[in-house]
């Protein structure tokens, strides 16, 4: 039995096989078959080539650089500081023009702070007390401003602390001090490169008189890279004056979707704006503190503490470039071997 099986298997090696086609002369089957063929062909042409542009090569890893420059001045007059002129040097952080920048819109300033003893703020839960026993000496106040001294100040109901006194006021002004910052402008220069196709582009089309006088508008000036801050916040769906009280974070999205088969001038950016921080609760906003230190004539150190509120702008760039692939040149032209020889390099090496 086993010998016969092996013999049949060996003889089958020398057999020649060919396909047999059966033609079904049935109109319904024939129509169904042709419909399937047309559907496949329609999918390839309509979806793969026309909709998805499968004949094009794509690069998603865009290389980008962003430079920003703000302009605008305003005059403020407060009871604490009197009249003061603000320009870009005063209200922009950091000053070097990065893709992320912060603009001051409101502030709490505490001048002439000196190291000493004063009551902690009543807004700090850990500082509340009834007797001295509630204030453990040498213990830092949790989320507070200093170190407990061991004494309870009955007038305020809080522990006495060793800190920079007087302490900071708890709330910012209801009317933002730099509310007029909505009229400031930011110039955003964005350069991109699709390294795969050796293609570079900038969003600045004209550096002459037009650039000095234009302000971005999606209808009248869609290619102007100068943006009014109030317009940016408005296009993100928010009111600048409301946001200026406690601050927030706005995203400026620059999207480059370039069909490099078309003219160079057709590769243009599209701008969109959105708010990035959560403004649905009491913790919303954006702020930080800094201090400037001085010494008086007697050598005693004092400082001015400033808590600034404002809007942080994040410039984000993405996009892709597409270019007609060289399938035709490599395989369908008479001199395709010449193109392949130029495109591909053959390297010979000795076996290891």
UniProtKB/TrEMBL annotation:
Keywords: ATP-binding, Cell membrane, Disulfide bond, Glycoprotein, Ion channel, Ion transport, Ligand-gated ion channel, Membrane, Nucleotide-binding, Receptor, Transmembrane, Transmembrane helix, Transport. It is found in: Cell membrane; Membrane. Glycans are attached at residue 183. ATP binds at residues 69-71, 185, 287-289, 307. InterPro entries: P2X_extracellular_dom_sf, P2X_purnocptor, P2X_receptor, P2X_RECEPTOR_CS. It is a multi-pass membrane protein. Its main location: membrane. GO terms for cellular component: plasma membrane; postsynapse. One of its GO terms (molecular function) is extracellularly ATP-gated monoatomic cation channel activity. Disulfide bonds join 118-165, 129-152, 135-159, 214-224, 258-267. Receptor for ATP that acts as a ligand-gated ion channel. Belongs to the P2X receptor family. This is P2X purinoceptor. It comes from Acipenser ruthenus.
């Amino acid at each position: 039995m086993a010998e016969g099986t092996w013999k049949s298997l060996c003889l089958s090696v020398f057999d020649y096989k060919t396909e047999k086609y059966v033609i079904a002369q049935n109109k319904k089957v024939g129509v169904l078959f042709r419909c399937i063929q047309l559907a496949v062909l329609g999918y390839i042409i309509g979806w793969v080539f026309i909709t998805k542009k499968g004949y094009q090569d794509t690069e998603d890893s865009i290389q980008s650089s962003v430079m920003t420059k703000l302009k605008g001045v305003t005059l403020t007059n407060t009871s604490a500081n009197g009249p003061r002129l603000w320009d870009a040097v005063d209200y922009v952080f950091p000053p070097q023009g990065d893709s992320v920048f912060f603009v001051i819109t409101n502030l709490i300033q505490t001048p002439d702070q000196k190291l000493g003893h004063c009551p902690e703020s009543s807004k700090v839960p850990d500082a509340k007390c009834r007797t001295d026993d509630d204030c453990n000496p040498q213990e830092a106040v949790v989320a507070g401003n200093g170190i407990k001294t061991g004494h309870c100040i009955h007038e305020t109901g809080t522990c006495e602390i060793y800190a920079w006194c007087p302490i900071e006021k708890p709330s910012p002004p209801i009317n933002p001090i730099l509310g007029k910052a909505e009229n400031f402008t930011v110039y955003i220069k964005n350069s991109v490169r699709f390294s795969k196709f050796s293609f570079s582009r900038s969003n600045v089309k004209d550096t002459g008189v037009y650039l000095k006088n234009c302000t971005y508008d999606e209808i009248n000036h869609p290619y102007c890279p100068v943006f009014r801050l109030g317009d940016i916040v408005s296009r993100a769906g928010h009111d600048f004056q409301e946001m200026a009280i406690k601050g927030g974070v706005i995203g400026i999205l620059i999207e480059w979707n370039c069909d490099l088969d078309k003219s160079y001038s057709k590769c243009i950016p599209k701008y969109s704006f959105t708010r990035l921080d959560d403004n649905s609760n009491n913790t919303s906003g954006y702020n930080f503190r800094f201090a400037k230190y001085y010494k008086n004539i007697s050598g005693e150190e004092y400082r001015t503490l400033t808590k600034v509120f404002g809007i942080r702008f994040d410039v984000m760039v993405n996009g892709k470039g597409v270019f007609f692939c060289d399938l035709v040149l490599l395989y369908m032209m008479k001199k395709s071997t010449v193109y392949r020889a130029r495109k591909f390099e053959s390297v010979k090496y000795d076996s290891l």
